[in-house]
Amino acid sequence: MLDTRPFMPPAVLEVADLSESFADFFPPLATVALAVGARWRDSAGLEVERRPDSAASPGRLRRYAWRVEAIASGDSGLKLGERLVDRGALAWDDSLGPLAWSREVSIETQLRPRPREAVRSLVTQRTSVRRITPGGSCR
Predict the structure, then answer these.
(1) Fewer CB within 10 Å: C terminus or N terminus of the chain?
(2) Which residues constitute the domain of residue 79?
(3) Backbone dihedral region of 69: left (phi > 0), alpha (psi from -120 to 50 degrees) or beta?
(4) Domain contains 76
């Protein structure tokens, strides 16, 4: 039996299935409740830390920080190496949910076609999100 499927370009698949796109926008969270000062880590290398709470908002404001670092090295004749660092911070209000988060993702790639030649590129994306509460305004 032949299994045939229509070809879908990756850009079209991203529009059809936005789950991966949202993963780049929303902050990663621990799957368990964390006490202040506690850390949680998953098998993919995501580490989430609960920072001290803040009383700056009407309710309690929980603060979290996360970091993920992944290193990949190619085994081709080009000796390609890649390092990804994703780090950020999140402020969570018990009654409203996420109030604000900032995230910085950096990808560094090194290509060594020959022993004495190297090409290095670094791309950094910064995202900053703040919830606008009713009665608030855009700035």
Answers:
(1) N
(2) 10-130
(3) beta
(4) yes
137 is a domain residue: no
Among 99, 101, 93, 92, smallest CA distance to 126 is for 101
**Parts of the chain with a pLDDT under 70:** 1-8, 12-25, 56-59, 74-79, 113, 134-139
CB neighbour list of residue 62: distance below 8 Å, 6 or more residues apart: 50, 53, 91, 92, 93, 94
CA distance 64 to 68: 14
Total count of domains within the chain: 1
- Determine, yes or no, domain membership for 139: no
For 58, the token pair is 């009407």
pLDDT in tens, 51-77: 998 876 566 789 999 999 988 776 555
**Is 5 inside a domain boundary?**
no
Predicted structure pTM score: 0.70
Query: What's the pLDDT at 119?
Result: 84
Please tell me the total number of residues recorded for the chain in this structure: 139
The tokens for 109 are 């790639």
Nearest 5°: CA angle at 109, between 106 and 113?
Answer: 175
